[in-house]
């Protein structure tokens, strides 16, 4: 027990001393028999003695140990869960960075436990992730697991606290010649301590990342945050690939992306400029049915659109896009009405009905509905009959954009943007070094990195001598090859 | 009697004096165009045409003229002069044999200059006879897809092209190019009149005209060629409906064209287009395509004004347009509608329903409406209809009917994007969309910011993936797990 409480010392430590001490402490802990974590002393459980906030690591050991001896007694589960919850609310994130594997195990147990107890409130899990890494900006396997859980529980909105945090980095193997920062230091970006060695995340694979974004996009589609969904889908579609390989997940994302374009813009989004041409080709050839759908949508050809919608029912259902397609069908009507405001300022409902190919009464109720749901910015003046009612578009705003562009959100968005730019810069710097090393370690001369390679060669003159030698070696290798 | 072909009203010009400005080979074609589309003048025009044709050598053209006469019901002119036909055909054939024989002789003697001249004579003969006789005798007879006359002209063109091999001075090249331009024009106009595709021939006209700009002749000779080059290119652009380029070409024609003598035996202003014609073509295409400012600087205050002085009424039309008197401008132009429709080039396509005059007028009208509307925030349809009376309506049409037509026109203008306005179908007014620049700028900036942000995030993602070696690897490659098989694999 003394060993357990021997850390942290009373007086505050500098980052380096902290690092040294905690590493020594961890070796000591590892040597302890497992019984040390479960044995009660003076009639008290170690969990009662230790403080979750200052003795986070031993507390975690004890919790893990406790999970192993749980019987079928539901009360025991509940009790332990409440302790875990308390731990998650108070633990010291800096200490936990040193015990990543343990943390991961505990988190997974908690997830299983919640499932076992049938609790659908998963906020414990998300707040745990956020306490360890308040920005949640480094992607970990827990992110994906959490989103899967939320969707499995049919409570997708619970995933939002995590999904709303943008991913700024992936855990990576610390470069050898880059001086590793100590996990104990105050760090700007969480991927400094969440890396492949820390155990805070399991090994990642590209498909897992794509799955995360695809699931996230589904959540956003469900919550109507379509522009965010678009971003997520584009992240999947634009996932870098070697030799133009295309993933089935990308196909799925592409199909959804096409449909989302119809919902938000009334036409498919333009292809991102950086998109690989052969990937586009591959994706398009896999999504013929969707392409046909978007084409008739773009031409506002409702007859053809609805016919295609019916004909492809099985396809939509198989791909899980049935509801999106149906919604696009409803939106088509809206776009046909709002297309009218490009030409008309006001017109009788009979004429709208003529354009839509509907009866006047149906048109009136459709318009009424659209105005009510504020998908159409217009006013209806009732007439003697449905046909004589007048639809007057609001000329002040063009299209479907809101009247008042909120200056405040605007500013916020721009600030976010600046942060993103800064971050990108930072990452790019890392890239150069990293590519330098990957190039030396394994020669994967992909064209994707060409731009960066060029940057490198420009940097060479000012680089230290060691780097010079490397690039010369490479030049020779190039000639040999 | 009713004409079986689309017709226009009586023109303001006198046929005799109008046609006296022109010479063959296009003169009979001009007369045939007038005959076909202007019933009051058709008899006179056909009579003149037959006279001219009989002076020439083109047998197939004679057949075409008499056929047109019987189609239009002029029985007296439809009778074929078989005597003349037989004599002409015989003479043509003999002439051709003679020329071919001579050319053979020259070729045996290997005298380059003689071969060139022999070849050129043969080409000229073929183009003058419509090449019918040649079509039978020539070995390299082309596929019989075109009418005999057309086919003959193609042979004439290729024969003439062969002259190039024997040219020794830039001056020869210039003469050859000029003749090729003329034959191509003849081909193009014939194709237009017989309802064939004329655009490849117009491309030839354009190509030869452009070549004329730089054949490498001496400065003083080039000065004579440049106007022909510009005018030829303008005609080619006009007839292929590229009005913007046409305007540009016509406006660059130097006024020396009006006074210069025939070049290398080709009198352009008599054979192809007179200075008055150039004035009209230039003015109409400019009115239809140029902005108000450009009209002032590039047309009225430019050397082109000299052309306009020849046709004061089109100059007046341009000034009226510039002074925003659109209805007066349109009225003035429409007074000359018949004249211009009977023009060989402007009236082309009349048989198909829309001549270039119609299209140019429609454009000018469209531009006028847009310009007129730009100074108002709201205009009623009835006032629009009185300023711009819809064309092609019976005068007895009711006010509602006129407004209805006007409304359709405005709608098509709005949906084509030419007019930035909205129609208030209830009050019968056209309303300018009120724009809040501030809100718009905000929305624009917001959108842009979002775009940039998304772009950055995508890039960041890419860089991150590359850093961590998280690229998708194709199946087959080691560690290839991208794709469906990864689904549902837990940790």
Provide structural commentary.
The complex is a heterodimer of chains A (481) and B (491). With 481 residues, chain A is mainly alpha-helical. Among the domains of chain A are: 203 residues, no CATH class; 56 residues, no CATH class. Helices cover 61% and strands 3% of the residues of chain A. Chain A has 24 helices and three strands. Chain A has a three-stranded antiparallel sheet. In chain A, helix 6 packs across helix 8 and helix 20 crosses helix 21. The longest helix of chain A is centred in the C-terminal third of the chain and has 35 residues. Chain B is an all-alpha fold and 491 residues long. Chain B has a domain of 69 residues: Arc Repressor Mutant, subunit A, CATH 1.10.10. Helices cover 65% and strands 2% of the residues of chain B. Chain B contains 24 helices and three strands. Chain B has a three-stranded antiparallel sheet. In chain B, helix 11 packs antiparallel against helix 12. The longest helix of chain B is centred in the last third of the chain and has 31 residues. At the A-B interface, helix 12, helix 13, helix 14, strand 1 and strand 3 of A face helix 23, strand 2 and helix 24 of B.
């Amino acid at each position: 027990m003394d060993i357990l409480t021997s850390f942290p010392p009373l007086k505050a430590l500098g980052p380096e001393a902290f690092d040294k001490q905690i590493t020594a402490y961890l070796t000591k802990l590892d040597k302890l028999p497992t019984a040390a974590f479960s044995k009660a002393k003076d009639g008290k459980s170690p969990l009662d003695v230790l403080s979750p906030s200052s003795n986070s690591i031993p507390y975690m050991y004890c919790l893990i140990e406790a999970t192993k001896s749980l019987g079928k007694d539901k009360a025991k589960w509940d009790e332990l869960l409440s302790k875990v919850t308390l731990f998650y609310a108070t633990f010291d994130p800096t200490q936990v960075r040193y015990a990543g594997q343990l943390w991961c195990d505990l988190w997974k147990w908690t997830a299983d436990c919640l499932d076992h107890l049938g609790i659908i409130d998963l906020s414990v899990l998300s707040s745990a992730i956020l306490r360890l890494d308040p920005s949640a900006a480094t992607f970990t396997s827990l992110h994906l697991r959490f989103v899967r859980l939320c969707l499995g529980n049919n409570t997708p909105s619970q995933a939002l606290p995590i999904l709303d945090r943008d991913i700024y980095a992936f855990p990576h193997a610390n470069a050898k010649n880059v001086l590793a920062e100590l996990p104990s230091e105050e760090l700007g970006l969480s991927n400094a301590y969440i890396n492949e060695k820390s155990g805070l995340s399991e090994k990642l694979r590209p498909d897992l990342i794509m799955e995360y974004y695809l699931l996230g996009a589904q959540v956003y589609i469900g919550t109507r945050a379509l522009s965010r969904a678009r971003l997520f889908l584009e992240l999947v579609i634009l996932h870098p690939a070697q030799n133009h390989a295309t993933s089935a997940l990308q196909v799925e994302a592409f199909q959804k992306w096409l449909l989302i374009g119809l919902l938000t813009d009334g036409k498919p989004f333009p292809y991102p400029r950086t998109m690989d041409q052969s990937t586009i080709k591959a994706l398009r050839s896999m999504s013929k049915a969707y392409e046909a759908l978007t084409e008739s949508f773009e031409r506002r050809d409702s007859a053809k659109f609805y016919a295609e919608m019916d004909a492809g029912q099985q396809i939509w259902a198989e791909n899980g896009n049935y509801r999106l397609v149906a919604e696009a069908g409803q939106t088509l009507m809206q776009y046909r009405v709002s297309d009218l405001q490009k030409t008309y300022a006001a017109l009788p409902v009979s004429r709208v009905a003529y354009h839509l190919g509907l009866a006047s009464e149906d048109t009136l109720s459709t318009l009424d509905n659209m105005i009510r749901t504020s998908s159409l910015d217009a006013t209806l003046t009732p007439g003697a009959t449905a046909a004589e009612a007048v639809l007057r578009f609001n000329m002040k705003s063009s299209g479907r954009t809101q009247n008042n562009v909120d200056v405040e959100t605007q500013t916020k968005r721009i600030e976010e943007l600046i942060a993103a730019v800064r971050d990108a810069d930072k990452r790019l710097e890392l890239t150069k070094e990293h590519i330098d090393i990957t190039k030396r370690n394994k020669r994967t001369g992909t064209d994707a990195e060409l731009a960066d390679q060029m940057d490198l060669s420009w940097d060479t003159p000012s680089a230290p001598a060691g780097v010079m030698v490397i690039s010369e070696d490479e030049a020779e290798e190039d000639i040999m090859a | 009697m009713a004409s079986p072909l689309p017709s226009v009203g009586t023109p303001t010009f006198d046929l005799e004096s109008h046609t006296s400005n022109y010479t063959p080979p296009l003169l009979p074609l001009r007369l045939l165009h007038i005959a076909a589309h202007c019933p009051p003048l058709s008899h006179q025009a056909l009579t003149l045409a037959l006279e001219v044709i009989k002076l020439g050598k083109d047998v197939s053209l004679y057949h075409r003229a008499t056929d047109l006469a019987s189609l239009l019901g002029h029985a007296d002119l439809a009778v074929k002069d078989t005597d003349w036909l037989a004599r002409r055909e015989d003479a043509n054939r003999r002439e051709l044999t003679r020329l071919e024989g001579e050319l053979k002789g020259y070729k045996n003697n290997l005298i380059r200059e003689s071969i060139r001249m022999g070849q050129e004579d043969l080409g000229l003969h073929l183009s003058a006879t419509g090449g019918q006789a040649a079509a039978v005798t020539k070995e390299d007879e082309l596929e019989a897809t075109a009418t005999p006359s057309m086919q003959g002209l193609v042979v004439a063109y290729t024969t003439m092209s062969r002259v190039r091999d024997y040219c020794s001075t830039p001056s020869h090249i210039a003469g050859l190019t000029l003749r090729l331009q003329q034959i191509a024009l003849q081909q193009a106009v014939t194709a237009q009149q017989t309802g064939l595709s004329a655009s490849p021939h117009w491309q030839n006209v354009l190509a030869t005209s452009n070549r004329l700009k730089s054949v490498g002749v001496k400065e003083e000779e080039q000065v004579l060629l440049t106007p022909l080059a510009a005018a030829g290119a303008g005609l080619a652009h006009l007839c292929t409906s590229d009005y913007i380029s046409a305007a540009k070409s016509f406006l660059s024609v130097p006024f020396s064209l009006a006074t210069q003598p025939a070049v290398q035996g080709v009198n352009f202003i008599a054979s192809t287009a007179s200075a008055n014609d150039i004035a009209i073509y230039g003015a109409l295409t400019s009115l239809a395509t140029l902005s108000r400012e450009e009209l002032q600087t590039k047309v009225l205050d430019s050397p082109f004004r000299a052309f306009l002085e020849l046709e004061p009424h089109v100059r007046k039309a341009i000034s009226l347009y510039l002074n925003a008197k659109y209805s007066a401008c349109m009225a003035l132009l429409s007074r000359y509608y018949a004249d211009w429709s009977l023009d060989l080039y402007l009236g082309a396509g009349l048989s198909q329903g829309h001549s270039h005059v119609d299209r140019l007028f429609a454009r000018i009208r469209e531009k006028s409406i847009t310009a007129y509307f730009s100074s108002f925030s709201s205009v009623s349809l009835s006032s629009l209809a009185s300023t711009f009376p819809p064309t092609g309506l019976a005068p007895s049409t009711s006010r509602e009917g006129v407004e209805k037509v006007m409304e359709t026109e405005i709608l098509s203008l709005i949906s084509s994007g030419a007019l930035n306005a909205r129609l208030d179908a209830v009050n019968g007014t056209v309303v300018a969309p009120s724009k809040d620049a501030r809100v718009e700028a905000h929305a624009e900036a917001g959108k842009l910011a979002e775009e940039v942000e998304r772009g950055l995030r995508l890039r960041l993602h890419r860089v991150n993936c590359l850093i961590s070696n998280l690229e998708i690897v194709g199946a087959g490659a080691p560690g290839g797990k991208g794709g469906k098989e990864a689904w549902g694999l837990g940790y």
